[in-house]
Amino acid sequence: AEPEAIRITPGKEVCYRMRDDVPPFLESTVTFRIAPNASGGTSLRVIHELPITGSGRMTKAAANHNRSPIKLAA
């Protein structure tokens, strides 16, 4: 949505706004966060936050939701 970061915490994180290129053109934010890990290296976390509807539900499910797959009947 915007090439500039919407939030920067030097040495810790940077956050960007993204927009789908197909209707309904939903906007979301992606945060790249770095932190030291226990072995002396660096950990990178990518956090994708999706819009929340008035009912408190996400409008789309994340592709890597880390839950067991659910089969739906047609």
Shape: elongated
Q: What is the assembly state of the chains in this entry?
A: single chain
Give the overall pLDDT as a whole number: 79
Q: Gap between N and C termini, in Å?
A: 36 Å
Largest sheet: 4 strands, antiparallel
Strand and helix order: EEEE
Q: What Rg is obtained from the alpha carbons, in whole angstroms?
A: 16 Å
Question: Largest sheet, order of strands side by side?
Answer: 1-2-3-4
- Count of helical regions: 0
Spans of at least 5 consecutive residues whose pLDDT stays below 50 are: none
Fraction in helix: under 10%
Amount of beta strand: 35-45%
Counting helices, strands and paired strands, the structural category is: mainly beta
Beta-strand segment tally: 4
Overview of the structural elements:
- It is built from no helices and four strands.
- It has 74 residues and is mostly beta strands.
- It has a four-stranded antiparallel sheet, with no helix packed on it.
Features:
74 residues, elongated, 4-stranded antiparallel beta sheet, 38% strand, 4 strands
Question: What's the arrangement of secondary structure elements?
Answer:
Blueprint: E1 7-9, E2 13-19, E3 27-36, E4 42-49
Antiparallel strand pairs: 1-2, 2-3, 3-4
